[in-house]
Write a structure and sequence with these properties.
Distance between the termini of chain A: 13 Å
Helix content of chain B: 40-55%
Strand content of chain A: 25-35%
Number of helices of chain A: 5
Distance between the termini of chain B: 35 Å
Number of strands of chain B: 9
Largest sheet of chain B: 8 strands, parallel
Strand order of the largest sheet of chain B: 8-7-6-5-4-3-2-9
Shape of chain A: globular
Order of helices and strands of chain A: EHEEHHEHEEEEEEEEH
Number of helices of chain B: 13
Structural class of chain A: alpha/beta
Largest sheet of chain A: 7 strands, mixed
Radius of gyration of chain B: 18 Å
Order of helices and strands of chain B: EHEHEHHEHEEHEHHHEHEHHH
Helix content of chain A: 25-40%
Oligomer: heterodimer
Structural class of chain B: alpha/beta
Number of strands of chain A: 12
Strand content of chain B: 5-15%
């Protein structure tokens, strides 16, 4: 099973390491042609404006909507969560618009407000060490979206079928339980298609 | 809940990887940089080539400029403090700047001591031209490094020298035995524990960007090819003929640094890059890279 990490900008190597620790084969993805050989894709943390711009430039918008429509799982962390969202607060244009949620960018403030904490995530036994860096929040979700965790009553982990989104950076820790969770999603999706 | 941990500070730099951080002098330039795909901007009163031309003492920017830039962009905003100038750094932190560059581009405030960066909540980036400088800055609390290069020259040769030297030194350290490591730590003037970490992992414990002399898309791609995690562009963009085009082209060349056809495409009709300076023509006092070792 091969899972890609979108490698236009951001923390790519960390996701590849975490996916490999979770037992998957992981590759960096720079071109749309690479998507065909993948069963799932991670959209990493980075700067969402940069990643969004480069996605448009290189044809990833249509290609990834198509990828998602085939039921192939997508996992967005931080900037990746923003890329998945239907709506971004205060911005007219969102990016992929595949996940029924409204997100707020830099929702905790500037870098000095960035933090780490332990988080209980539905479906994962042990608490997850969550690193929030200029992190976004999920302000509103549609009926198809499951809220998997909250922090101070705000949504920070959510799943909609084959789509998984988190506000924080599981790839910056040695705990790969969320990556294992995603690898399981990819296995299920592949099995249901076979 | 913990703020300002080393993971939070270093993690912020990890999110900049593969990106381009651009020097800007006002709100308008900041918007151009953001629209071109910059992952962060460095708010300055003057870009390095102007600092070089003006001479005199270069200090932290007027807070008005930094605030103005913070207001108009949603990407992180960095700002420079003089080497060893604790108060300039505290002032920038109090304003909510996302990252401080303790920078040799400004005139050092202290010729011996750098700022003790561990006691700050916000992260610091520092320049380094060899492994010793790199690990000393990390020990002081830098959460990100960059090559010093020779700022404001539009000449990539010094940044290349620094990155090659650091990478070569890392490879050498990897091959040393334990007893040799003790000695090497002494020679480099760095803590043994940090050197041991480099020996074991084969890399620096923080992100290392290229800086100081990047003037063209190919320069940026060259630094990525040599192993930089991303690129700072100082004077290269807003001292070129067409800043918007240069900015976009450098962003694309950084992402696709191995795609030479694409770099050829984005390099077409860019107009004149910033005028460069031959390094050997610089007097010793004009060499910014020798500040703060």
């Amino acid at each position: 099973m091969k899972i890609g990490v979108l490698a236009l900008q951001g923390a790519v190597a960390e996701h590849i390491r975490s996916l490999e620790s979770a037992g998957a084969e992981a590759v960096a993805v720079k071109r749309v042609e690479q998507l065909d050989e993948l069963q799932g894709l991670v959209i990493p943390g980075g700067e969402s404006t940069t990643i969004g711009k480069l996605m448009r430039k290189y044809g990833f918008m249509d290609a990834l909507r198509d990828f998602s429509e085939q039921g192939k799982p997508l996992f967005g962390t931080c900037a990746g969560l923003i890329v998945l969202a239907d709506h971004i607060e205060g911005q007219e244009e969102a990016h992929l618009r595949v996940m029924d949620m409204t997100v707020a960018r830099n929702a905790f403030g500037r870098q000095r407000e960035s933090f780490e904490t332990d988080l209980q995530v539905k479906g994962i036994e042990e608490p997850v060490r969550a690193v929030f860096i200029r992190a976004p929040l999920i302000k509103k979700v549609g009926p198809e979206v499951d809220v998997l965790s909250t922090y101070n009553d705000e949504i920070v982990t959510a799943r909609q079928g084959h789509l998984l989104a988190v506000s924080y950076h599981p790839e910056l820790t040695d705990d790969y339980s969320l990556h294992s969770y995603f690898v399981d999603m990819v296995k299920e999706a592949a099995a249901s298609k076979a | 809940m913990e703020t300002g941990t080393s993971r939070v500070k270093r993690g912020m730099a990890e999110m900049q990887k593969g990106g381009v951080i651009m020097d800007v002098m006002n709100a308008e330039q900041a918007k151009v940089a953001e629209a071109a795909g910059a992952t962060a901007v460095m708010a300055l009163e003057r870009v390095p080539s102007d600092i070089r031309a003006a001479g005199g003492v270069a200090r932290m920017a007027d807070p008005t400029i930094v605030e103005e830039v913070m207001k108009v962009v949603s990407i992180p905003v960095m700002a420079k403090a003089r080497i060893g100038h604790y108060v300039e750094a505290k002032v920038l932190e109090s304003m909510g700047v996302d990252y401080i560059d303790e920078s040799e581009v400004l005139t050092p405030a202290d010729e011996v001591f750098h700022i003790s960066k561990n006691e700050f909540t916000i992260p610091f980036v520092c320049g380094a031209k060899d492994l010793g400088e790199a690990l000393r800055r990390i020990q002081e609390g830098a959460a990100m490094l960059r090559t010093k290069g020779e700022p404001g020259t539009g000449n990539i040769v010094e940044a290349v020298r620094h990155l090659r030297l650091i990478n070569g030194q890392i490879r050498k350290v990897q091959g040393l035995s334990k007893d040799e490591l003790y000695h090497e730590a002494k020679l480099l003037g760095v803590p043994y524990e940090l050197l041991l970490n480099v020996h074991e992992t084969g890399k620096l414990p923080v992100v290392n960007f290229a800086a100081g002399g990047v003037a063209t898309p190919s320069d940026a791609a060259l630094m990525m090819h040599l192993g930089a995690d991303g690129v700072f562009v100082g004077s290269g963009i807003f001292k070129s003929d067409s800043p918007e085009k240069f900015a976009r082209a450098i962003v694309e060349a950084t992402t696709h640094y191995q795609d030479y056809k694409l770099i050829a495409e984005v390099s077409k009709n860019l107009g004149t890059p910033m005028k460069g300076i031959e390094i050997s023509k610089l007097e010793a006092a004009q060499r910014m890279q020798d500040r703060g070792i």
